[in-house]
Amino acid sequence: MLDTHVTQVRLLPWAPRRRSTAVVHLFGKEEIAGSIPAAGSILDTSTATWFNRGMDHIPILEFEGGFRFLSNFYPVSIMLEGNVYLSAEHAFQAAKTADPLEQQKIREMLTPGKAKRAGRQVTLRPNWEQNKLRVMEALVRQKFNHPDLRDKLLATGNKILVEGNTWGDTFWGVCRGKGENHLGKILMKVRSELAALVQR
Q: What is the enclosing helix (H) or strand (E) of 175?
């Protein structure tokens, strides 16, 4: 059954659309529906406990263990152009191409790792490099529109989020102390916006 909290990302054409609730736009701000827990709340899960207050100076340097939910590999329903994908990674790799068959191939991959590898073989959309950051941000926003993941993201407080890795990705993350950490920056941006809604 399709998760009722799943919103949609429409990739074509590469242009802004009018804002609407329940729809994530690639080139504009989104409406984020649903309740958000109070700032400074304590969240317990089966894997970890976060205490926002007093620990914000300790950064999160990799998206593993109790912070695996920050990774694009984390299993969550993501809708892209009317199709459901198994993770944000699946959807991002499929977003690279406008070819329905290539998108289907990625959609049917059983793991995010396989989807990532398949994404390296697709025919890229025109101007993909200029638009990939906006696409990633839209998918991350959609991911954290799921209430449980939204709560976990907010529970990280003001910690610096770093997508630390050992596979040489210095664009989305940081490897051996070097990297632009764009995924971490997007996560912190989305978290800041969600936290601002709490205070309204």
A: strand 174-175
What is the predicted pLDDT for the residue at 57? 77
Task: Evaluate whether 90 touches 115 at the Cβ level (below 8 Å).
Answer: yes
| Residue pointed to by tokens 């890229």 | 124
How many other CB atoms sit within 10 Å of the CB of residue 44? 9
Dihedral sign (CA 29, 30, 35, 39): negative
Query: What's the rounded Cα separation, in Å, for the pair 195 and 154?
Result: 7
In CATH terms, the fold of domain 8-198 is Tetracycline Repressor; domain 2 (1.10.357)
Tokens 């054409």 found at: 13
- CA dihedral 32→35→37→39, nearest 10 degrees, is 50
Q: Are strands 83-87 and 75-80 parallel, antiparallel or unpaired?
A: antiparallel
Kindly give the residue spans of alpha helices, DSSP state H, lying in 42-99: 88-95
Average pLDDT of the residues in 127-145: 97
Task: Say whether pLDDT at 86 is over 70.
Answer: yes
**Mean pLDDT to the nearest integer, 45-72:** 73
The Cα–Cα gap between 192 and 78 comes to 22
CB-based contact 146:76 (threshold 8 Å):
yes
Placement of tokens 């529970």 in the chain: 155
Binning pLDDT at 50, 70 and 90, where does residue 68 land? very high
pLDDT surpassing 90 at residue 47 = no
- Tell whether the model's pLDDT for residue 172 goes beyond 90: yes
